[in-house]
Design goal:
This protein is an alpha/beta fold. Helices cover about 50% and strands about 5% of the residues. Helix 15 links the parallel strand 5 and strand 6.
Length: about 375
Amino acid sequence: MSFHVTPDQLRRAEEFVRRCHAHGELAPVDLDQFWAAQKQATADPWSADCPQMPLGMLMSSECVFDELGIPETDENWHRLTHDSTWRAEVCRAYNDRAEQIVGRRLLSEAVPDPSRQWPGHKGLHDIFEARNEWHGASYWLQQAAHGEAELRALLDRVDERLADLRAFVLPDGWEAAKERLLPRGIRPPLYRGQRGPVTFATSIYGAEDLIWLILDNPELAARLRDTILRAILELARVIDEEAGYTPETAPHGWGWADDNCCLLNPALYEFWGYPILKGVFDRYSPNPGDARGQHSDSDMAHLLPVLGQLGLTWANFGPTVRCDEIREHLPRALICGQLAPFTLSRNEEVNMVAELLRDHAMTRERHGISFATAGSINNG
């Protein structure tokens, strides 16, 4: 059942779907007109002249499993993630079908050029000694500390690494790649997004452990919070400098993915999570027009008043969070979809239309929304 849909919206959706099916399997669509309107809507989703709600879910390569009938095994997931040649092949096969139906090749078929690739460097989880293990079709961070004594010792070691983080995070061969690539104008990918602070901390220390730490030992919790912030800023600074940027010339913008932020109440989040977001945004999104975003596909509406203090410019929140709630607290944030993921994955046609009508009604006056899922899409 869809969230927050009115009986009238459901009735209108049922009638619309009935009329579509009267035309056969696929209802007639003027694809040229749709994509022209999509281009205009995407360029300015806030405009009063926006011709349609922009479509924000143009799929990602994970959809090839269902669409092409590829067995969804751990081996094939690993291959999709690590074998760029095979990924391009299956994306090309998907695009051949998509082009016939929607008139566009939606997935990237690009294969990275090895001569233009930088070697991978260590990330925030490495700084905090969290192993990133592959199993169950994805990478999972393993807990790095159990109990307060282990956490203190871990933070001591992190402090030592932060004294010379460049030496720790950059791999062998980095200098050779730098001499080869920078003169060609090929900069290393910048660090401008991170698993959000609550999700990261619950991964490396444990969900219940983090909550009890904040409640029982706020001094140590604050040290963990401040160390995470220092590590993020220092890692970003190191990579910026390696790319040839100064603090004045470094590109702005930052995005978070923090599903587990829902575990903290507003007071705990304002004490623990908010300072990390603010510290990073103050450094990398200091201007009103800079990108400040958060994805949290969980039931975290209780945190909207706190997040509203950060001036987010885009948001993708859980399907139980209403668009009018988001707009009340985040008036300048592009709402990147509130369609329930299971509504899409189950192909609930009536509910898809009903949820679109619901979200349009809640954002009609201001626009600033795209039609996408509030979280992962099928196979995602």
